[in-house]
Amino acid sequence: MKLVRFLSKGQEGWAVHDAATDCWHGTTSDSEVYPGAVDALIRTGGNALTNAAAMMASQAAVDLADIQFLAPVAQPPKIICVGLNYKDHSEESGFKQPDYPTLFSRFNTSVVAHDAALIHTDLSDTLDYEGELVVVIGKGGINISREDALSHVLGYSVFNDGSIREYQFKSPQWMMGKNFDGTGAFGPWLVTADELPPGARGLLLETRLNGQTVQSANTDDMVFDVESLIMILSEVFTLEAGDLIVAGTPSGIGHAREPKLYMRPGDVCEVEIERIGLLRNKVQSRVPANPTVHH
């Protein structure tokens, strides 16, 4: 199942994809048959989301050209990001490949949806791209075994982990450079795990800046696969339904190039993962009054 959240005429809604007709069907929250918000259905668990999607499939067609995309999960309890999860990226960044995941958190205030603007701050010119796979947790748990890990995955999506490098390396902790408002793009939709290979293995991941391919890798190249990440994280804290694991970027980042290749206002950055989707965002200067960001 592919599921997209959107805003239409001031109302939030969501829709599911009919592969046979290549059409989307769904409705908005003001409809009498609206089955509830995606986040709430994920938290309910069981077959709640599947049953609601089956009902949505019988609703009117939704033209994606007429809607504003929203992030696939509105309010994830946690956004856990993985650094240095591709050997070639660790090498280009000057780090020894760690034998334990390099982890940091993102805040939801940093997240924007597909087709929304990535915000270029006036504090630094070092906004960099990082194309990544997103794992969406569907069933929470603690001390999850590797063997059971994939049963906790609802689905997958795409992320651009936009990073202000100057602020990322002001201290040993990367939090500040990874959490500027409007720098983390997430979308365009969610693809449930049953439509993809186990652990989203073997998928081509590419990032393009103004049409030029700047990153190209395969999810098989991840040092810590999805099962390992879920097992390691849940040794320490409880994973909750709706949590996101942003699983790391391959080589090709702008910061590692000579000359540096940072994103500038007016640039268009695309991250595409095979069988999942293409996430596109235009870079825009930050304005004095921060715009409202819908999630």
Automatic annotation (TrEMBL):
Keyword Metal-binding in record: yes
**What is one Gene Ontology biological process annotated in the Swiss-Prot or TrEMBL record?**
carboxylic acid metabolic process
Family, per the entry? Answer: Belongs to the FAH family.
InterPro entries xrefs: FAH (IPR051121), Fumarylacetoacetase-like_C (IPR011234), Fumarylacetoacetase_C_sf (IPR036663)
Give any GO molecular function from the UniProt entry: hydrolase activity
Report whether Nucleus shows up as a keyword of the record.
Answer: no
- Every copy of the Fumarylacetoacetase-like C-terminal domain together lies at 78-284
Q: Which organism is it from?
A: Polaromonas eurypsychrophila
Supply the name of the protein. 5-oxopent-3-ene-1,2,5-tricarboxylate decarboxylase
Leader sequence segment? none
Cofactor or coenzyme needed: Mg(2+)
Kindly state which keywords UniProt assigns to this record, in alphabetical order. Answer: Hydrolase, Metal-binding
- Organism phylogeny: Bacteria, Pseudomonadati, Pseudomonadota, Betaproteobacteria, Burkholderiales
